[in-house]
Structure formats: structure tokens, C-alpha cells
Amino acid sequence: MLSWKSAQLNHRHSQRRNKPMKPTIITCALTGAQQGKQAYPALPEQPDEIISQGLEAWRAGAAILHLHARDKNGKASSDVEIFHQIVDGLRSAGCDAVLNLSTGGAVAGLPLEERILLVPELKPEIASFSVGGGSMLGRYDHDGDTWVGDRFVPLFSSHREMEQVARIFSDNATKPELEVYHSGMLNNIAALMDVGVLEEPLLVNFVMGIPGECTKATVKNLQFLTEGLPPGAEWLVSAIGAANHFRMLGAVLAMGGQIRVGLEDNVYIRRGELAASNGQIVEKAVRILRELGGEPATPEETRHILKLSGGNKHE
Known about the structure:
20% strand, globular
């Protein structure tokens, strides 16, 4: 027969085992800046398409919507008015998701000074911030005996330039989602923290699986990257491509990370089957999360977790 003390200890251990996971933030990246409808017809490009799929993803459980803009020809754009149209459309439909606007588009050749304008103009709650000098992309095609997609994508030319952009984020109460493509970028985050231009908790997105100068999507690599973060940082993974997208999700959850899914990163719902929409991909992520004992965070829980203090949530 168990003693009273043993029974109490067993009860406490049982409580710890049965304690629910903290809510997990699901980000849905709706469209990106690279592939278009010629690669995948269901990819949302125009504002009405992005708004429609954004609402579907939000209703499916995404607390954050990561938004890029496209022009009338489907090309990546940094036009503030197009972003404004998307934001207004989501808000007027009652969507309370946290909106994460992209200052990316370097891969599409958009200059930094144009991409960063949306921060002071729209003051989003979150905007992406790639904290590095740039990356070589591409892979070698042995069948064709040539390099495919071989190019250099410039990001920042100096630490001073990164500091200036970080101050723009801070001045407009916009939290940067720090995009990390390889471990060297963690040094840049540390340098910006040392200068005092990044507020905690940090939000870091590990972009993994892009062919070229980008970290391969493996659990071992992810463990190494997360060990380089300061205590209390929140992090997620953009696992690019069908071979990586859902496979990495379980590891992310086991290691305490947040979730990112969406057509920007992967267009398949399962092997050999294209996804119908961003909403369908979010629904699958929610099912996996719940099977592992978790629950998706609401937008308000997300704002509390990330300590968001400003932005366009009421616009």
C-alpha cells in the first residue's frame, strides 16, 4: 500500500503528465513572392483571392496570416496600396488574426527601400525581417548537366543597414519576425540585441529546405539552431517543399516551437496530392496538433504570447 507521501508524489507526477500543452501559434503563409499560377493554379495572387484564402485559413485555426502582395500580372509587389487593400478586406470581414506583412521579395528583385515602406505606412503588428547579407540559391541538375535557379539574393549590405531597419520596426511598434536561413544569421541577431534594437521575446523563423545556401530541414539541424537562441525566444520553422513541410511539424511541436504552414512553402496536402487551398493545409496542421495533445492559439492568445503592443488589429 502506498504511503500518503508516495500517493501525493504520484498525483503530482500525474498532474504534470496530464497538464495540457501551451497553446500553439499557427501561422499560414498564403502566397509568397516566387511561384505563380503557372506552377499551381490555386495559388492566391490578387487581393480578393488572398483575402478569401486568408479568411478560410483563419477560420480553420491560423492565428497569424503571413501576407505578400502581387500586382495585376501576378508578380511580387511591394505596393503599399495593394497591402492596404488586403488588410482592409480581412478586417472588414471580421478577421481578427494577427497580420504579418512581408518585407521580403528580395528573391523577386524588389529593392529594400521599397519593401520596408509598408512598416511606417501600415504599422503592422508583425513584419518579416531577413537578418543576413544574402544567400546563394540553386541546385545542380545532373540530368541536364547544369545549375538550376543559380543566383545570389542580396538582403543587407551592412550591420548598420540592419540596425536602421530594426529601428524603423521599433519606432512603429511592429514586431520583426526574424528570418534565419543559416546559423550565421544568429550572430546578426545577437549583434542587434547588443545594440538594443530588438525587443524580447524575439520571434524567429528558421527557413529550412531551400536548395542552396540554406539549412537543410533535419531535426539535428533544427536542434542546433534553436540552441543558439536567447532564453524566452519564440520560434517557428518554414519547412520548404512537400518532402519537408509536414514531416518537420512533429519535431517542431516536440521541441516547443510554433507552427508555420501554407501554400507559400508547400502546395501538397499529402504525397502526390495538391492541396485545394491554404485552409485545407491549416486544417491538417490543426489535426496533427490535436493528435499530439495541443490546441491552436487564438489571435488574442497569440498577442499575449508575443507581447504585441501595436499594429493594425483594430483597422
